[in-house]
Write a structure and sequence with these properties.
mainly alpha; 4 helices; 0% strand; elongated
């Protein structure tokens, strides 16, 4: 399972933020654009984790969708930069 597949699993389960950060650490510093995309994804991912832990079910689906969108954007940026 590659890093992006594992991140998708973490989005589905609202998993560990530290694991997500570890998976993304290798992409930081490639460019300002990629670093910004990593930070945007992590912000949305941690928001998703918070929303689920707080029991705010009405916000879970839109935030999960946003996190997936950010991950897709990051994946495209990493593939272009590679």
């Amino acid at each position: 399972m590659d890093s992006f597949q594992r991140l998708e699993v973490l989005i589905d389960s609202a998993g560990d933020g530290e694991e997500a950060n570890t998976l993304l650490r290798r992409f930081k510093g490639r460019s300002q654009t990629v670093t910004a995309a990593v930070e945007e994804f992590m912000l949305d991912f941690m928001t998703l984790v918070f929303v689920i832990e707080a029991g705010e079910d009405d916000f879970e689906k839109p935030i999960r969708k946003l996190a997936r969108s950010r991950l897709s954007n990051l994946k495209q940026l990493v593939n272009v930069a590679a």
